[in-house]
Amino acid sequence: MDISVKMSYDHLENEEIKSIFLLCAQIGPRALIMDLVKYCFGLGILEGVSSLWEAREKIKISIQKLKDSGLLLDESSNNHFNMHGMVRDTALSIAHKDHNAFNLRNGKLDDWPELENCTSISMCNSDIIDGLEVINCPQLKLFQIDTNDPYLEIPESFFRRMKNLREQLKKLRILSFSGSLKNLPTELQCLDKLRMLDIIDCSELKTIPPNVISRLTCLEELYIRESLIKMLVERETNKGQDLFLSELKNLHQLKVVELSIPCVSNFANNLFFDKLKDYKIVIGDFEFFSLGELRMLDKHETFKVLAINGVREVVNDLNIDGFQDLKHLSILNNNDIKYVNSTELCNYVNLFPNLESLRLCNLGVGFLGRFEKTLEPENNKRERAERENEY
């Protein structure tokens, strides 16, 4: 154990930030800040926090304090945090000694150790030789596994002796099916305490039953980019999209949304984005957005991002008045686009008063001039707008 790291840890101001630091080490070397928010909020580590938005802000402050203490690397990424290997080893040692945490990194598990007093199990990039068996962990609160075996199955009996894990999950607050869901079960509507639902990258998702999402009345954050758009395109229907957007409109606690939708039909009628604090919305044919273009959307710490494909008149088709706080706009791969708005452009000089970056890529040759008339730079924010047009 490194003495200097241990001293820095001991001098942290309270037990809350100490727990956050230990979780940073357990989650992984370069993990998402949003994953840390999920863990901290779900485990009830954060004091005086009643919403995910408050949790997110508190985690940002804590990460900066850990950077100032030299316990996290001072990187420029808005989405990730990183920890030096020596610091991580010391943190994992502290977690094991003081909190009975079991951690395995880049190794092989031949036999389970004694886990009767274990409070957390974290295995990353590791192989489990004999598969998962029933283990006695009555105190377990956190179970994280990232194995190299794509065929590893977790039997139902595996959790039988984990008495501290909550059954039925009716008070569940964080639920992530990212990349692993084929059908959204109707039983989900029973989770009326749910605050966050993450079903990003579920390429095999076939259906979202009606009136399930609308029952999640406490939902604050919804991440459904890539999943929904593929499902709706396969059905070739706008009705499902309209019904889904209508359900979201009635979720009055909703503050953050990541969403992809295939078309703009009746989009204005379902507009609710002016009520959100953050959003990332992709509109149009998903196949026209390259991986690099989608990653461009993820670089912004404060979302308020809109990416558009397949729209002829931005204002008329989208009712852009609902995006007055828009900060980042991308219009990509769209030869058919004609106008920002078909009426007098001079009426829309203040169309995007808070816009910080603008990305135009692969558009019709005549469009750029029309758009520049609409976005005459009048303040520093608009002067920083990026204009790209690749033909």
TrEMBL record:
Keywords: Plant defense. It comes from the Eukaryota. InterPro entries: LRR_dom_sf, Plant_NBS-LRR. This is Uncharacterized protein. It comes from Vigna mungo (Black gram).
